Structure formats: structure tokens, C-alpha cells
């Protein structure tokens, strides 16, 4: 069978789930010339999204952890196409891509379309600012590597400016306000507590990090980590309080300005740096795209086969999909473990479709629990089904090892065990001769 006649599987979105799906399908169907696999993403490189808060804080150098899509495609028998999906033609079975421009505004790639037989949409989510006044203009989200690096530059510049200025540090000048106390918010707060002190220690002797740098979390719910068990949330709150992080729960943000954040109770939190980590939504371009069913936050509504409700040739998974949660009234939660499970199911699904079989496997979400990493200080979590179908609370070294193993499992899925072992050894050796925080 020629390449032109092969079943063409197009995957839009090179996040953890989409990239793992493309890699494993390439290693099976692509390598054996049973299907053609194409991955589309608007970036050239991939970084595991749960690491973005470490990049933002400066405790991780992204250059040592990013993966090049073209190289991965070459090694694993699929094609990579650079571009941003902005439309869909279901009648012609084509994905529409917007023109691609470089940083100078030059059009590198013209608008184009890519045909498909099976389309998998895995474009993830973006931060939902809920239309709060000033949030878009005066806060930074952590949805992408570029945003995380931008925040780190702003943080570093703020510290350097404060070091050299002749006037006293103003109220809020070095403060960071984090809107949203989900996993990203609380993990970022802990990382920032460490890295701001590390940065100040590298010759920024005019800055007293304990006194001049304040980190504040603002959460509309009555606890941090509102989607997780209260025991875990209470433990995290206690650790954050020990670090001096100001935790404001039950406070809904009503406005963000260049000077700080206002809440519904009338409270003003002075801060020159604001991170918006409250709520998610699927990208706006998905809203009713070519007639497909979407919900109020732009997620594509799918069956338990992960097929969209109005087109059996189009699948969606991860944060951009609203998938029924069997035995519950709501949908499968937008979590990394759900996307990983769905990617594993879609590998079987695509093999069935290539063989021409109409009966597809059903996705059933399994909750294995949650882990929250507070940087060098501690890691806490709860494991589901550990004791008679209940949950078991863990913390400390065991929780930290399990948290780090999640990233290693992601890498193994992309590169294989032996390659990951060599990479890890190389990072361990080089880290002993490098600063423990990114200094630029």
C-alpha cells in the first residue's frame, strides 16, 4: 500500500497526551506502514506542562528538558507539522491551519489544510480569566513554556531593578500574587519562596528576601486545592503558612491592576507581579467548530469512545474534551492522569479503525489519587483505592519519589527506559556544576 492510500491519523496538539499518542502510534502503525501519522502543534518543542511552574520560578532550565518535535517524529516514524489549528472542514475531512509568522511578523508558512481519515484533537486548555477586569492585561498565565519563561524574566528583572535602585523598595514592588490555589498555584508559591531567596543570595545583597519579597495566594473557594480531599488541602495550607506564604481563601478577585489585585470583600493586595492560575477552558477556536457540539467552556463533547457526538471520525481527549464519567453526574476531571489513560485507549482505538472495525473500546476513568509537590520543602498526596477502596494519605520522601516518577514515566513513554536512564544520569552529573536556580 502506498503512503497516499494509508489511513491518515492526524493528531492536533503535542502536549503530554498527544505526543505520547503520536509516538506510540508511530512506533506501531507508522513503523509497519499500516497508517500514516501526523502531529500538528504551534510550537517547535515540548515541555511537560506540570513542569511549567518550575520554569516560571527558575528552578528548572527548560533547555535541558524540552523535546524537539521534528526529532521525535524522525525517531518514531510519524510526521510533524508546525502550525496552529484555527478551523475544520468536516465535509472535506480537512484540518485548517492559520498562517505561521516569526517573531518579526514575517509569514513563514501560509495558511493551509491537512487531510485526515481519523482526527484526534488534543489541544489542552487555557486559563479562564472569567472576564475579570484587567486580568488579561495585568496578569500572566502559565499555559505555555513561553508564558512561564516570560514570568521568570519579569521576576528576575524586578529583583535586579530593586538591587540597583537608589530609592526604597515600594509596597508591592517585589510581591507576587497568585490567583487560584489549585496544584499550579500552590506549587508555584513554594517554588518561588525558594528561588527568590536563591536569586537574592547570588549577589543581590540589597534585597532582604524575607522582608521584601511576599508571596500571596488568592482562592475563591474555602480551601486551597478545592478539588482535592480536605486533609491534603489542610496539610498544604500548613506548609505554605510555615513558608510565610499569605493564603487568602474565600476571596474572589474582581479586578487586577498594574499595582495589585482587588477582591470582592474590598481587600487590596499590592503586587507588581500577578499570576492567573484560576480555572480552565478549552481554546476559543473550538467553540462550535464546524457544527461540533461544545459546552460552556469550549470543550468538545464526546462519547465514552472519545468520539465527538456529531462526527464519528473526530476524537477529542484531555482538557479540551468533555467526557462522561461513568457512575458520576459530571465529566472526567481535566487531569494529567486522565489524559494519559485516554491516550492509551486511543492507541487501541486507532488500531481498530485501521483494521476497519466499527466497535471501539470504551473509556472508564480510574482515579489513582493526587500528588502536590511543594518544591524542596515537602510533597503530599492521597492514593485512591489504597485501603479497602478508600484513600491513603502520604507525604515526605515516599510522596516525592512518586511525584518525580510521574515525569519519568512520561519520558519513558516517549524515549524508552534506557534513553531516559542515560538522560537522567547526565542531568545529575551536570547539575553538580551549575547554579541551582536560573540566573537570567
Explain what you see:
By secondary structure, the chain is of the alpha/beta class. It folds into three domains: 3-125 and 282-354, FAD/NAD(P)-binding domain, CATH 3.50.50.60; 135-279, 3-Layer(bba) Sandwich (FAD/NAD(P)-binding domain), CATH 3.50.50; 369-431, no CATH class. The chain contains eleven helices and 27 strands. It has helices spanning 16-30, 52-57, 69-75, 135-138, 145-164, 183-201, 209-212, 230-242, 336-354, 397-415, 417-431; strands at 7-12, 35-41, 45-46, 67-68, 79-82, 85-89, 94-97, 100-101, 107-109, 112-115, 118-121, 126-127, 176-179, 215-219, 246-249, 253-256, 260-263, 268-270, 273-276, 280-281, 300-301, 307-308, 311-316, 321-322, 369-374, 378-384, 391-395. Helix 1 packs parallel to helix 9 (336-354). The radius of gyration is 23 Å and the shape is globular. 41% of the residues are buried. The mean pLDDT is 89.
Strand and helix layout:
Blueprint: E1 7-12, H1 16-30, E2 35-41, E3 45-46, H2 52-57, E4 67-68, H3 69-75, E5 79-82, E6 85-89, E7 94-97, E8 100-101, E9 107-109, E10 112-115, E11 118-121, E12 126-127, H4 135-138, H5 145-164, E13 176-179, H6 183-201, H7 209-212, E14 215-219, H8 230-242, E15 246-249, E16 253-256, E17 260-263, E18 268-270, E19 273-276, E20 280-281, E21 300-301, E22 307-308, E23 311-316, E24 321-322, H9 336-354, E25 369-374, E26 378-384, E27 391-395, H10 397-415, H11 417-431
Parallel strand pairs: 1-2, 1-11, 2-5, 11-23, 13-14, 13-19, 14-15, 21-24
Antiparallel strand pairs: 3-4, 6-7, 7-10, 8-9, 12-20, 16-17, 17-18, 22-23, 25-26, 26-27
